[in-house]
Amino acid sequence: MYSRLLRIVLAGLLGFSTPLLAAGNDALQRDLSRIAPGLNQQALRHALAAMQCAVNNGAGPARRLAVIDYSRPSTERRLWIFDLQRKRLVLRDFVAHGRQSGENFAQSFSNRLNSNQTSLGLFRTAESYSGKHGYSLRMDGLEPGLNDLARERAIVIHGADYVSPNLVRSQGRIGRSLGCPAVRPEVARMVVDQLKGGQFLFAWHNDPRWLQGSDYLNCKPQRVAQVISKLGGVQRWHAGISQR
C-alpha cells in the first residue's frame, strides 16, 4: 500500500499523474488521439489500459509509450512513439513483423523459440547495446506465455535495410524479421534512444487468443504484480552485467 501511494505521489511530482491514474486515461487517450488521428482507437485504449495495469501493480512510470498496430499492413507506418509527459508524438514510422507471421499482414503470433514470429502484448524496454545489427535495444515481455520469452528469443529493436518502403514496389511489402520489431536504419538510433531504459512498448492486433488471454487487458493484479516483481530483479541483474 505504501509503495503504491509513493509511486502515485512521485508521479504527480514528475508530471506523470495523467497516464498513471485510471481517471485520467480517458483524457490522455483524447490528447493522444488528437496528435495521432490515424491510430486505431481500440489499440490506443488497450495500450493505455495495459500500461495502467502494470504501473498500478508495481511497475515504475514511463516517460514514453510505443504502440505498434500489427493489424495494419507492413506497407503502412504502424509504429507510434509518444512522449507521455509532453503529450507529443515523437515518431510515426514503418516497423517489421516476423517472417513466419505473414506476408504484408501479420496473422500468426508466437512466443516460442525459433518460431520467427512476432509476439503481441506489453513489453518493458531495457538496455541498449551494439550488436550484429548495430545500435539496438533489448526488451522484456511482460505477458506470461504470450511474450515473456522475448529476451531468450533475442527480440530486440534494431535497424534493418529491409525495412524500406522502396521494397513495396518490387515485392508488395517491406522486409520481415525473425520476430523483432525492426525499423528503418535512418531512424533506428533515435528510436532506441527514445525508448531505452524502462519505457513501455505495446504490440497490438485484434487477435482473439491474445485479447482473451492477456493479464494486462483483463488486469489481473496478483499475476501482474508477480511478473513485475520478477522482472525488476532481472533487469537490475542485466543492467549490472552491462556496466561491468
From TrEMBL:
Residues of the signal peptide: 1-22
Domain of life: Bacteria
Keywords: Signal
Protein name: Murein L,D-transpeptidase catalytic domain family protein
